[in-house]
Specification:
With 306 residues, this protein is mainly alpha-helical. Helices cover 55% and strands 8% of the residues. Helix 5 crosses helix 12 and helix 6 packs across helix 11. It is elongated, with a radius of gyration of 30 Å.
Length: 306
């Protein structure tokens, strides 16, 4: 949570939003009060709960932008939803509980991105070695001893099927020298457009799209995630440039270096304490006592959101 004063927060918002001084001031004070409440004693924190902010105004005056800039200022997970897209359980439409689920996923992505940045330098060393190994394999530097022996047979003259220690040392030195030359070119980014063969994950997952068409997109998404985690990931060989291979290797190696359990716990904590949900078109689900006909009641949605 940012430690800026309300005056400093308003000054930051003035860089992106014209006018609306009273709205900026109210939001800045609310943000500062939230920062102060998080520093209360443990026995008092449970008595202070976050408040909702109701912003009223015509389209384009800056309601969404104020909330979005505040979230970016304090590095908080932020999602915007439209109240009219949610319905009561049992009707076609999204469940209100999916709002918090989306917010938690957004928070986990933020925490994961921060963790990946911390291990980026260590992962880059491993990635460079993997790229060099791909070059060495393609250039035939990693041939086995039998290939080396048969290449030495000339004019059908019988030769001893063994390699002396001196020859093995020479071969190893040549390989190290070649690898050093490739490493220098790689560091100087002279090999970015060269093609290498790598194994990449096949992202074609199980087909569950037919489920989502029946208004059960949440169930379809959950089944997709479940099957994606249970089934082993297939890999296929593909020829790509060094530049693209580095991105793939970087993602794989950095993923191995972070603890996803800690990432998830930190993400959930971030969503609970700093998450911001912007609900648009809230006035359109207000109940009308004089309404009649077969329209779906919105009162259940109002209760769930509130």
């Amino acid at each position: 949570m940012n430690e800026k004063t309300p005056k400093q927060i308003v000054s930051e918002l003035d860089k992106y939003i014209v006018g609306q001084f009273q709205a900026k001031k109210s939001v800045a004070i609310a943000l500062r009060n939230r920062w102060r409440s998080k520093r209360l004693a443990t026995e008092l924190k449970d008595d202070v709960i976050p408040k909702n902010i109701l912003m009223i105004g015509s389209t384009g005056v800056g309601k969404t932008e104020i909330a979005r800039r505040i979230a970016k200022l304090v590095q908080a997970p932020f999602i915007k939803v439209e109240a009219t897209k949610f319905t009561e359980v049992g009707y076609i439409g999204r469940d209100v509980e999916s709002i918090i689920r989306d917010l938690a996923e957004k928070a986990i992505q933020i925490v994961k991105s921060n963790h990946l940045q911390k291990v980026e330098s260590d992962a880059k060393i491993i990635v460079d070695e993997k790229i060099l190994d791909c070059f060495m394999e393609e250039q035939g530097e990693n041939k086995n001893q039998f290939e080396l022996l048969f290449n030495n047979l000339e004019n059908n003259e019988p030769k001893e099927l063994s390699i002396s220690a001196e020859a093995a040392v020479v071969i190893e030195q040549e390989k190290l020298q070649k690898k050093a030359e490739l490493r220098n070119k790689l560091l100087n980014q002279e090999l970015e457009d060269e093609l290498i063969e790598v194994y990449v994950e096949d992202n074609k997952g199980p087909m569950v799209g037919m489920i989502a068409g029946a208004g059960l997109e949440e169930i379809g998404s959950n089944i997709q995630d479940m099957l994606g985690n249970l089934l082993p990931k297939k890999k296929k060989k593909k020829k790509i440039t060094v530049k693209n291979a580095r991105k793939i290797f970087m993602q794989e190696e950095a993923q191995k270096m972070i603890d996803m359990d800690n990432v998830i716990n930190e993400g959930l904590d971030l969503a609970q304490n700093n998450g911001i949900v912007f609900i648009d078109e809230f006035d359109k689900i207000a109940g009308r006592n004089n309404s009649s006909g077969p329209d779906v009641s919105r009162e259940g949605v109002q209760r769930d959101i509130l």
